[in-house]
Amino acid sequence: MTDHEFAQLLSLCDREFVEKQEKFQMWIATSGMWFYDLEECTLTLGDTKFEVTPIGTFGASSGTWLWAWANSEFPPNAIERAEKLKCLYELTGWEVFENPGTHATVDELQIFNLLAIHILDSVGLFQDGEGGEPALYLAVHEAQ
Predict the structure, then answer these.
(1) Whole domain around residue 21: which residue ranges?
(2) pTM for the complete prediction?
(3) Per the structure, how many domains does the chain have?
(4) Fewest CB atoms less than 10 Å from the CB: which of 33, 38, 100, 122?
């Protein structure tokens, strides 16, 4: 994939993400309580349960990104679901999508998440950074 083709893909992903995330934020705003279960790959917002695919984790203080498929601390089911994201390397040919982790800026982190939401055809992105570092990013799928 050329830089120009990548820029076009990223522009498409950005437009999709804004629309999807706006709708998904309404779920979050009205849910009150939430919790996720990586064993089951679910996110519960209020009384609604969503399937999720872990994307990765980001340590802001170290500037490091780790793809969920490479995170040995995740349950096998979560790793298996996250392996779908390996197709980003096949699509782009960019090593950052093949390597287990990398140093990343906040802008690069956003790119990783935009592409993941697009590739997985997710309805939104959920970030859990409340427990400190690293922050966890989940692609959220249709409500069950």
Answers:
(1) 3-143
(2) 0.92
(3) 1
(4) 33
